[in-house]
Specification:
With 210 residues, the chain is of the alpha/beta class. The protein contains nine helices and nine strands.
Length: 210
């Protein structure tokens, strides 16, 4: 699947921190039904590569699936071997970026400053994760957007909820990553489905009114 943030289905990244391999498929199913097509399994989850492999087996042809909290090139390789094609990091590590791109994977490094953003761009990244977004706010993203290349996509992640989507879009956000706003291990499947549907509806509504 191509990672196209202009498409509502792939503008929202589901961050499944803490997911167990035993419930990965069911969780992927409710996310898919709600219209979310990008799924990230953070590597500080229990047996994350097993969850990635399970999700890829069931949803790999219609969803972009991969790893988050990727801190080194070894983790990039292990994600690729599990079938994942997305690498998300909390920081900007040019080696991780280049390693993912060499394997033909999508990569989204974490940035906060213009210096980090341009370092990521020089390494080949075209999609950047503003993290933690709530710490900086939409005005910070707007300032970054003014100096970054227009083709670079920006994704606020961390502390962003459905009600915040319009302000972030107005500031220049292209998509979003949602963690505890969408998934926690103690949420049951109906709640995850409801949260996912709410986020999809909020994005669609905000885009229509821009």
């Amino acid at each position: 699947m191509q990672f196209d943030p202009t498409d509502d289905a792939s503008a929202l990244v589901a961050i499944l921190r803490g997911i167990q391999p035993t419930n990965a498929l069911e969780t992927g199913g409710v996310l898919h039904a709600a219209g979310i097509r990008v799924i990230e399994v953070p590597l500080n989850s229990p047996d994350p590569f097993a969850s990635i492999a399970a999700l890829v087996t069931q949803y790999g042809t219609t969803c972009l699936i991969g790893a988050g909290t990727v801190l080194d090139t070894k983790a990039v390789t292990r994600t690729f071997e599990a079938g994942g094609r997305l690498i998300v990091a909390p920081n900007c590590d040019p080696e991780v970026i280049r390693s993912a791109l060499e394997l033909g994977m999508e990569v989204m490094p974490g940035i906060a400053t213009a210096t980090e953003a341009f370092s990521a761009i020089r390494a080949g990244a075209t999609k950047l994760k503003l993290f933690p977004a709530a710490t900086y706010g939409p005005k910070h993203l707007q300032a970054l957007r003014a100096v970054l290349p227009a083709a670079v996509r920006l994704y606020p992640v961390g502390g962003v909820g459905a009600a915040d989507i319009p302000a972030w879009l107005a500031a220049g956000a292209d998509g979003f990553g949602f963690g505890s706003e969408l998934f926690r291990p103690d949420y049951d499947l109906p709640e995850i489905g409801q949260r996912a549907a709410q986020l999809v509806r909020a994005l669609q509504a905000a885009r229509r009114t821009r």
